[in-house]
Fold:
Amino acid sequence: MLTDLLGIPPQVLFGQLLLGLINGAFYAVLSLGLAVIFGLLNIVNFAHGALYMLGAFSTYFLAKYLGVGYWGALILAPLIVGALGIVIERYLLRRLTGVDHLYGLLLTFGLALVIEGIFVKLFGASGIPYPTPPQLTGGINLGFMFLPYYRAWVVVASLIVCIATWVLFERTKIGSYLRAGTENPQLLQAFGVNVPVLTTLAYGYGVALAAFAGVLAAPITQVSPLMGSNLIIVVFAVVVIGGMGSIVGAVVTGLAMGVVEGLTKVFWPEASATVIFLVMAIVLVLRPAGLFGKSA
Structure:
């Protein structure tokens, strides 16, 4: 077997591959939200990590103050944070229409610092535990590792959301309107389509995807004000590798980079924290638009 030739126990190799796939599911959903926002609004949303964190905190607040369990939070938290995203786009980002995109980047970066600072002040930097839903406790013995049911659910839920998003933006009339609005908004407006409302809803949807990932992460990683900042740089690298604005690129690259990261932990553990950035550098040299991006 290949594992015998490499001198690596199969439990270690396959276990890290599976853990990499689980991490890749988070990368895919988060980078998908970034790709939607950049592809349709041409905004580099540096607040994405903070909004991911708000999704996890919304899950915690819904349980603590309203008694809403995990399954209810899986629907309500993305709606709540998505509504906040709509307010951000309507009253902040829209005011930057027509100016250099750098201002949008700086605004969202500052917004992320403000949100994280407020939550660190209120809750501290340490995490708050959130229980795994009772229906998904336990796991299954795969022979090479014990797979918790919840982590398997994370992969399945992420794939469902990614496929549904692709169908929404690539195979529906709303998706065609949004794509047309990025290329020629004046013409689309002339046909009676309210382009500003569409772009606002698109931003809200991208933010809701970040919040959805936050809900999925709450039972795995403790709910912490810094959980987004620890992850968002890696997710930005994933988006760049896949191609800025590419929905397919975000999903495929997110899953692939999770697996690559897992394999690196087996063969070269010291490089596991930087391998994604190394891949990004290589891709930018060979194909600046990204693996699935469109060259200018």
User: Anything to note?
Assistant: The first helix runs from residue 2 to 6. The domain at 18-286 is CATH 1.10.3470 (ABC transporter involved in vitamin B12 uptake, BtuC). The chain has a mean pLDDT of 88.
